[in-house]
Design goal:
single chain; 311 residues; alpha/beta; Rossmann fold; seven-stranded mixed β-sheet; 12 helices; globular
Length: 311
């Protein structure tokens, strides 16, 4: 999926896992799940993040049209493992990564933002970007087509220059990014939100190496990883079981279960400064969000923030 050629046999098997080209199957369906979580977060009285577009994605396709977009639509409300705790996790993640992106472009010279696996992310439309920002959104053609249909129906207007790049990451996304106007001589901000879980180890390493190669000093990167040695230890976690039972998404069947590479160490060896945090760190910072519990599928989640310092 992330090799240097359009058909990388190391990751060929992921094609079947991903299901349909759009959002109605496989990994694409998880984009709708996150959109539903963002919609629920938007309507909470103590909302961490606002995404007025999220519920429109959820309601626009039969695959998710009967999912809740407000916690009040869930019979057991916040006690529901999926639409309560897990949705709050996605709301917190949205807030933290929103803050990271805005801090990176407002305090530095970076005006290029690259969103890997952009999915139904609407940051180009809802965040206040400084003048001159360009948001590159990389994802499969079917996902972006669905996204465009919904946003066009809402007459949504981006708050920065938005450049969708409809390409599967198994193909030459580097060339497509260059063709779209990405400038390797200018600082950039990169985001891989909820992506690394699905990648083979070699694909993650390729992505990290390529981001480093394409980034000049002053660039920044954020991504999410899991550090568990055995994901199946959490197969009975309420987050996983409720997601499978309520909306038919078996996350453990989608996650790649190879041993993970040391991407943080790789970045440090390449001269990047790194910070690794748990989601619970930000729960405590913001005063709301998930806290640790027994048999917790979030226990191994880490959010990584990296900067390529100037000389």
């Amino acid at each position: 999926m992330f090799g240097t050629t359009p058909r990388n046999t190391e990751v060929e098997g992921k094609q079947d896992v991903e299901g349909t080209e759009g959002v109605e199957g496989g990994v694409g369906l998880t984009a709708l799940m996150v959109a539903a979580a963002r919609a629920i977060e938007t309507h909470r009285h103590d909302s961490l993040a606002q995404d007025v577009y999220a519920e429109h994605f959820v309601l626009a396709t039969p695959a998710s049209a009967d999912w809740p977009v407000r916690v009040q639509q869930v019979p057991d409300g916040e006690a529901n493992p999926l639409w309560g705790r897990f949705a709050r996790y996605f709301g917190l993640r949205t807030r933290v990564l929103d803050d990271f992106l805005l801090l990176s472009v407002h305090t530095g010279n970076a005006r290029q933002v690259v969103l890997f696996g952009a999915g139904l992310d609407s940051r180009a439309f809802r965040l206040d970007w400084p003048p001159g920002c360009v948001i590159f959104e990389i994802d499969r053609e079917g996902v972006l087509a669905f996204k465009h249909k919904v946003l066009d129906g809402l007459s949504a207007t981006p708050k920065a220059t938005r450049v969708p790049i409809p390409i599967d990451l198994r193909a030459d996304w580097v060339g497509a990014l260059a063709d779209a106007g990405f400038d390797t001589a200018a600082p950039s901000v990169w985001l891989a939100e909820g992506l690394m879980f699905y990648l083979p180890a070699a694909a993650e390493t390729y992505l990290i190496d390529t981001v480093d190669r394409l980034s000049t000093e002053g660039s920044a990167l954020a991504f999410e990883v899991k550090v568990e040695k055995d994901l199946l230890e959490y197969r009975d976690s309420p987050l996983y079981t409720s997601t499978a039972q309520q909306i038919g998404i078996d996350l453990l069947s989608l996650f790649d279960r190879e041993p993970r590479p040391d991407s943080v160490g790789d970045l440090a060896r390449k001269g990047w400064s790194t910070s690794v945090r748990t989601p619970f760190d930000f729960t405590r910072r913001h005063g709301r969000g998930p806290l640790p519990e027994r048999n917790d599928a979030l226990e191994g989640n880490r959010w990584v923030f990296a900067n390529k310092p100037r000389p």
